Amino acid sequence: MTEYFKRLYSKEEEFLDKFGASAAAAAQILSGDWQPNYHCSDRARKNQSYFRSTGELTELTFESATVNHDSNAFSSVQIVLRSSTRTVTVRVNKVGVDLLAEKIVDRLDQNARPEDKR
User: Fold this and answer.
1) CB 7 within 8 A of CB 67
2) How confident is the model at residue 117 (pLDDT cuts 50, 70, 90)?
3) Which residues is 3 bridged to in the sheet?
4) pLDDT for 44-53, tens place per residue?
5) Is 18 left (phi over 0), alpha (psi -120 to 50) or beta?
6) In which element (H, E) is residue 34 found?
7) pLDDT given at position 87
8) How distant, in Å, are the alpha carbons of 22, 42, 56 from that of 51?
9) Where along the chain do its domains lie?
10) 21: left (phi over 0), alpha (psi -120 to 50) or beta
11) What is the pLDDT of residues 95-106, one digit of tens each?
């Protein structure tokens, strides 16, 4: 199946408004490491960015998401999540009527301090 890029979301609340079910599928496979924030705002993003830069953001937070389509319509999303020490990417594919999530990247960031690593 050939996919093409449809849209990039940088605001979590806008992504969740359209693709909340995909986010829920991603959250489920992460077993509590991330929960969608339906009340995210510019202020929250600014705070997250600040605490990520100081090494104090221990929770994974939404960084961005891309939406992909195939010839029919929506086919998948990729959600990038970050903390001060970790980056996770989850891909959620639409298979028939089901949404199947898989973690495709889970890495500790190079510039993280050793005592911060999980």
Assistant:
1) yes
2) very low
3) none
4) 999 999 999 9
5) alpha
6) none
7) 97
8) 27, 14, 5
9) 4-116
10) alpha
11) 999 999 999 999
Q: Which amino acid is residue 93, in one-letter code?
A: N
Rounded-to-integer distance, Cα 34 and Cα 60, Å: 6
* pLDDT number for residue 114: 46
**% of the chain beyond a pLDDT of 70:** 92
Residue reference for tokens 């969740």? 16
Q: 51: burial class by Cβ within 10 Å (0-12, 13-18, 19+)?
A: middle
Indicate the pairing of strand 4-9 with strand 61-69. Answer: antiparallel
DSSP state of 14: H
Q: How far is CA 40 from CA 2, 10, 17, 103, 118, in A?
A: 33, 11, 11, 23, 26
* Stated length of the chain: 118
The answer to whether 55 touches 112, Cβ cutoff 8 Å, is yes
pLDDT digits (tens, 9 = 90+) for 56-89: 999 999 999 999 999 989 999 999 999 999 999 9
Q: Tokens 């077993």 — which residue?
A: 31
